[in-house]
């Protein structure tokens, strides 16, 4: 049976609903960590760089673990992988409450939480969708999953801020950790693994990675995805503190993050829809160019509640709209059999960018008292990534086909 449209263990609609709920919880909790920057830094005596380093390590650990999590899900099963990841993720978040200094926070909120996020991330969810959905519908379904993760960002930002205001940051983290455990029963609907496709070679991890890296368009896609991570992580972690520095309240910061998530529902669905009708690499180039323009305009106008919300709305449309297009290109290059692993490799580049964005934001602020240099760098990287995506060619990699005997 082909891996392009395997019959799922449960009705396809139920699988999609469960997968979207997992994506919403996992991403919603993760994107709320920026709201903890100021209260945790104040209580623990952390510098902005100290907290930023822990979150940067989280993104790096997520990126390093993602290819292995994807490969594990491809070969062992998605449901088991997601449930195991939820346990690790929840443990890391709860252990953040007893982290007395930056080193402990780097271990709990950084390494443990980052590995947990990788194992139960929407990247693993998309591998389940990729094996169950016909190729012509994948881009749209990937967009739905990405929109669901953004909806999680929209609902968890005000919930997390409410928890912090009402109970303090320690109790807020415990509540979020318990909510992550909801992923475990939901993961049952995504059980199963991707089978070898007819006419496609079954390659070991390193051999598949080596052949994939030899595909020039895949290399460009991986390099360009670095910039997506840089933008997202810097804004997600440092935007609330930046707005407070500009004289706005922490609540405005939380709603800014929520608005990004709300508008990315539109962006992700639109991206998934357009990805099935137009060249994906051109859409990606347009997204990165538009991000650079949006950041530039935001820096030119005085910061106010209106401009913060307007910027959040624009960036929200462009936020995770790269994901269905990038995943769609990986599936087009190499087929569904290797989607979890090879999208995971691309996502590692994304998380390297996240590491740099989060850490550099904290470092530059501590050194200069301003985030300006990082904002300007974000503009340059957006323009560079737009240029990198233009030469990508939408065609499958012949090295992944079975050789005639």
TrEMBL record:
Record protein name field: MFS transporter
PANTHER family: EG:103B4.3 PROTEIN-RELATED, MONOCARBOXYLATE TRANSPORTER
Residues spanning the membrane: 12-30, 50-69, 81-98, 104-129, 141-160, 172-190, 220-243, 255-275, 282-303, 309-334, 341-361, 373-392
Organism annotation: Devosia rhodophyticola
Major facilitator superfamily (MFS) profile domain mapped to chain residues: 12-396
InterPro entries noted in UniProt: MFS, MFS_dom, MFS_trans_sf, Proton-linked_MCT
Keywords in alphabetical order: Membrane, Transmembrane, Transmembrane helix
Annotated CDD domains: MFS_YcxA_like (cd17355)
PROSITE patterns xref list: MFS, PROKAR_LIPOPROTEIN
A Pfam family per the record: MFS_1
